[in-house]
């Protein structure tokens, strides 16, 4: 600010010269006139200049004061709204808004709302609306029901998910008090609209503050919306609150260009000319406006102008009073300067106290002006000269420097947190706020702002955030109480463990979590230990919200403040219920079958031994029954293991219902159940009970939409006749079971000593079978197949045989199922395919012509997934053309792992290998698979052919099978043809091919070759 200094008057005495009086007087007059003229001109010039400068100085001083005043008002308003917003956010997180319902007077919610505004005197009330606008909570406990869905703030939050804090127009309450509605949207975890939480801010609380700082009698302080809507005005002007001023204030058009500014205007309210200073509240649609009466501001200046004008009334008075006026002017200017210096000193002291530095950078001259505190904040040595911009940039953290430098280059203000350069000392965190200064062309010529040291607040916030994260991420529950033992905080793990939400326990005592398993003396001992040593830890039974008791490990500690005074208690709880449940589950599973929950072999042995130990000498009664589910493996192969598990579970349930009280039912193996009976008079009771079990098993079972009927076999041993130990009784009952299975399904047998010999025989078969392939004990026989249309011998089925040097000839029905059980069937099956291909190729070279050889494969060969590779290798190795090989599958192969089987059959067909379905009609389901699988041939099982002449049902099945296959374009072959009647019936029914003893028995390759030659002589093809 330029300040002009008045001239000091100086007197020059000139002595009169003799003889030159007139000339001297004239000269003096001229000089006097000239002097007076010059003095007049100088005074007028000085008057105009001084008054102009003084007026400008008064206005500049007032502008500086008013800008600071506006800044204070804006900061106070922003802080108040931020406090309200924080209270709303805190309350919304603590209150779960339910689906639309009647309002509730929940004390915990009410306490939360009241607590949120307790330290906000300018907030009259706070309330919560649900998604339909119903007021469900409020801090004033208003009676009745209120629906505020028609209010603007409710509609805005419902329709605009991104709307932040919404400030409504002033409204007159039913108490006759003006208030401003401030609201926030409540968003559910899924992002949907969850309601609105709002507060009523009373402008009258700001009225006293505005009144206290109102500048002068003609001054005015107002709070308006950015659209010109009046929120608050001091002095009051009733009737215009909540209305847009007309005409609109000029700042409405200035806001898009500058958030801070000033202008001259005549008030539309009281017609007073004022200088207005406005500032937009940061982040809010509000503007703080301070108006100063121009007449009042320039009153001192007008007084000075009148004083200076009075000098012109008379030249003499001007001369006489020139020194006085000059001195008065100097004194006045000194007073103004002193006031300005005093104001700047006070501002500097306040900035130093608040660790705030101010600065201004001239973007054209690249120079800056700093307050003293700026040097301290940036850890720089104070310099007398204005520091250049690059000094400011170098003092900042390298990661923050680019943004500030970009702002300087683009001529824009910025707002945010900055860090100091770590190379110049410890890093400080500074909050920066700046504004742009523009010339009359709207060009930004300078940027000014403030820096505030917020290092302590930054680290305090980080510590609080870290503590909050640790608090909530702890897997153990945490309960914090005050010194009176009332709960003040819990974490998420506590809510998960106990089932109590935080809102239900705040303000309550932890006694609500106690279980009835402990007496009061136990809890008193805990309290005494905490009071004595400051800590207690141990196992305690707690109680969840649903009333269930659970075991927990608890640590209770005393909390102390900085001076060692007790401020409360903290308890950390670890839920031990999962550990105890897991241990119990492990213990149970170690002794029970996971599927049926029945005792396993380990627990069975223990129970059986207990039964033997507790037997009465005069009436020993312990019987062991082993029940085996017949053909369970075939069921698993056909419908899958899930179906087999369903059957086992249903059988277990039925057997449990039949089991006498105190006896044992166990499942030691995959398809076996063991019953230990201890209450029977004689073997007839055991037989009756065994038949009851067989009847229960035979009852139909629903599995996967099918009705199945299964059978079982039972082996029985009785103490002490069949053994005196648990192992002997189980071994002998198992031997009896093996004997029973030889007589077909649904059979029961008591143990006889000779059965052990049979069991040993099966063990011998298994032992010898494991080495049979390596010892070349396996070989193939071939049974001829004849075409009924021309009588030609068109094929042969390869049948596996085994001759053991120790066991002799072993029947296929004995060793093939065993090979499947012990996992040898895949290896043996591969050998069969290679042998059959080699033999077929040999017959082509030495015989009358090519011949199709059929080879059976098991479900395990399909499941292994290598069948196609084995066939390809065997064909390549033997040189046999693929069309002379036929792979026979059973129904169980198709129904087990259907997709795997389908892919492999398709691959075999693509190779040119034929595929046939063996034993058609004997499984659980067949028809649904005929349309899906690309089959070449269908074989009618011998069980239907055997009775085709005498049994109408067998004949009907055979005819239906032939018709079905022909309808699908599939060749039909019948096996087991033993007489001409059967042959002729099949021929008449349209069967394509036959095989059986009538055609020829299975024979070694040499005999089969002779049979083929003799057949060729009879029926040449």
End-to-end CA span: 130 Å
Strand percent estimate: 15-25%
Q: Work out the number of β strands.
A: 36
Mean pLDDT: 82
Helix share of residues? 40-55%
Q: Write the CATH architecture name of the largest domain.
A: 2-Layer Sandwich
* Largest sheet, spatial ordering of strands: 28-29-31-32-33-34-35-36
CATH topology of the largest domain: Beta-Lactamase
- Describe the main β-sheet briefly: 8 strands, mixed, barrel
Q: Extract low-pLDDT stretches.
A: 1-25, 323-327
Rg = 54 Å
Annotation field: number of helices: 33
Sheet/helix structural class: alpha+beta
CATH top level label of the largest domain: Alpha Beta
**CATH 4th-level superfamily of the largest domain:** PAS domain
Which of globular, elongated, flat, extended, rod-shaped describes the shape? elongated
Domain module tally: 6
């Amino acid at each position: 600010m330029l300040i002009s200094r008045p001239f000091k008057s100086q007197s020059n005495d000139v002595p009169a010269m003799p003889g030159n009086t007139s000339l001297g007087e004239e000269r003096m007059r001229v000089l006097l006139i000239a002097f007076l003229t010059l003095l007049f001109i100088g005074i007028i010039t000085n008057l105009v200049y001084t008054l102009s400068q003084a007026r400008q100085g008064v206005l500049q001083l007032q502008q500086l004061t008013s800008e600071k005043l506006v800044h204070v008002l804006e900061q106070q308003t922003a802080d108040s709204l931020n406090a309200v917003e924080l209270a709303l956010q805190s309350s919304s997180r603590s209150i779960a808004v339910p689906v639309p319902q009647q309002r509730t007077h929940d004390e915990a919610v009410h306490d939360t709302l009241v607590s949120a505004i307790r330290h906000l005197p300018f907030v009259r009330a706070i309330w919560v609306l649900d998604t339909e606008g119903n007021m469900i909570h409020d801090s004033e406990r208003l009676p009745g029901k209120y629906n505020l869905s028609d209010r603007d703030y409710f509609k805005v939050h419902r329709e605009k998910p991104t709307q932040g804090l919404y400030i409504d127009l002033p409204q007159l309450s039913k108490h006759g008090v003006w208030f401003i509605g401030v609201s926030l949207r409540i968003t559910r975890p899924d992002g949907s609209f969850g309601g609105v939480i709002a507060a009523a801010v009373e402008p009258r609380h700001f009225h006293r503050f505005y009144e206290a700082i109102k500048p002068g009698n003609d001054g005015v302080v107002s709070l308006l919306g950015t659209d010109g809507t009046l929120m608050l005005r001091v002095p009051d002007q009733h009737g215009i609150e909540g209305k847009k001023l007309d005409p609109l204030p000029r700042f409405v058009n200035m806001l898009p260009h500058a958030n801070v500014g000033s202008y001259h205007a005549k008030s539309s309210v009281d017609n007073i000319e004022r200088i207005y200073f406005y500032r937009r509240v940061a982040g809010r649609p509000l503007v703080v406006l301070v108006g100063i009466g121009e007449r009042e501001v320039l009153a001192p200046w007008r007084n000075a102008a009148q004083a200076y004008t009075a000098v012109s009334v008379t030249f003499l008075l001007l001369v006489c009073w020139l020194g006085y006026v000059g001195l008065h002017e100097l004194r006045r200017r000194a007073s103004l300067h002193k006031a300005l210096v005093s104001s700047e000193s006070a501002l500097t002291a306040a900035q130093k106290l608040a660790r705030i530095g101010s600065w201004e950078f001239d973007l054209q001259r690249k120079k800056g002006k700093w307050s003293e505190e700026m040097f301290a904040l940036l850890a720089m040595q104070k310099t007398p000269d204005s520091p250049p911009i690059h000094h400011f940039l170098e003092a900042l953290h390298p990661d923050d420097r680019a943004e500030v430098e970009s702002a300087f280059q683009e001529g824009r203000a910025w707002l945010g947190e900055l860090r100091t350069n770590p190379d110049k000392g410890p890093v400080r965190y500074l909050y920066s706020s700046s504004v742009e200064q523009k010339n009359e062309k709207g060009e930004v010529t300078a940027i000014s702002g403030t820096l505030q040291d917020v290092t302590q607040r930054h680290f305090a916030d980080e510590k609080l955030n870290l503590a909050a994260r640790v608090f909530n991420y702890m897997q153990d529950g945490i309960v914090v109480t005050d010194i009176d033992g009332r709960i003040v905080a819990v974490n998420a793990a506590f809510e998960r463990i106990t089932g109590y939400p935080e809102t239900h326990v705040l303000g309550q005592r932890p006694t609500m979590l106690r279980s009835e398993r402990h007496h009061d003396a136990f809890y008193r001992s805990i309290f005494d230990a905490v009071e004595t040593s400051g800590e207690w830890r141990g196992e305690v039974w707690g109680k969840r919200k649903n009333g269930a008791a659970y075991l927990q490990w608890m640590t209770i500690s005393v909390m102390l403040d900085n001076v060692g005074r007790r401020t409360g208690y903290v308890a950390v709880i670890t839920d031990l219920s999962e550990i105890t449940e897991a241990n119990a589950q492990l213990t149970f599973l170690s002794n029970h079958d996971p599927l049926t929950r029945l005792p396993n072999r380990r627990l069975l042995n223990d129970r059986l031994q207990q039964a033997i130990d507790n037997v009465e000498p005069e009436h020993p009664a312990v019987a062991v029954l082993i029940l085996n589910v017949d053909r369970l493996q075939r069921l698993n192969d056909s419908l899958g293991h899930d179906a087999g598990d369903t059957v086992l579970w249903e059988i277990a349930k039925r057997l449990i219902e039949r089991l006498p009280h105190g006896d044992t039912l166990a499942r030691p193996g995959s398809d076996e159940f063991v019953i230990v009976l201890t209450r029977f008079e004689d073997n007839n009771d055991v037989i009756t009970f065994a038949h009851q079990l067989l009847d229960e098993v035979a009852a139909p079972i629903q599995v996967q939409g099918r009705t199945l009927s299964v059978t079982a076999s039972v082996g029985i041993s009785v103490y002490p006749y069949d053994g005196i130990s648990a192992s002997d009784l189980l071994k002998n009952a198992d031997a009896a079971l093996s004997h029973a299975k030889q007589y077909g399904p649904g059979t029961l047998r008591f143990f006889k000593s000779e059965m052990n010999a049979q069991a040993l025989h099966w063990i011998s078969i298994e032992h010898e079978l494991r080495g049979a392939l390596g010892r070349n004990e396996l070989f193939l026989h071939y049974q001829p197949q004849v075409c009924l249309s021309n009588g030609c011998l068109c094929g042969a089925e390869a049948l596996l045989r085994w001759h053991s040097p120790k066991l002799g000839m072993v029947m296929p029905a004995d060793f093939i199922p065993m090979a499947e059980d012990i996992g040898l069937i895949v290896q043996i099956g591969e050998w069969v395919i290679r042998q059959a291909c080699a033999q077929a190729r040999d017959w082509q070279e030495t015989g009358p012509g090519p011949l199709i050889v059929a080879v059976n494969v098991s479900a395990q060969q399909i499941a292994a997934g290598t069948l196609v590779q084995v066939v390809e290798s065997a064909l390549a190795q033997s040189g046999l053309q693929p069309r002379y090989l036929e792979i026979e599958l059973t129904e169980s192969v198709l129904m087990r792992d259907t997709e795997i089987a389908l892919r492999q059959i398709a691959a075999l067909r693509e190779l040119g290998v034929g595929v046939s379905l063996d034993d058609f009609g004997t499984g659980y389901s067949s028809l649904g698979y005929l349309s899906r699988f690309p089959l070449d041939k269908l074989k009618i099982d011998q069980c239907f052919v055997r009775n085709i002449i005498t049994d109408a049902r067998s004949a009907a099945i055979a005819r239906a099978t032939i018709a079905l296959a022909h309808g699908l374009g599939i060749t039909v072959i019948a096996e087991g043809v033993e007489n001409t009647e059967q042959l002729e019936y099949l021929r008449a029914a349209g069967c394509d091919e036959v095989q059986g003893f009538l055609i020829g028995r299975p024979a070694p390759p040499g005999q089969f070759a002779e049979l083929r030659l003799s057949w060729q002589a009879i029926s040449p093809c």
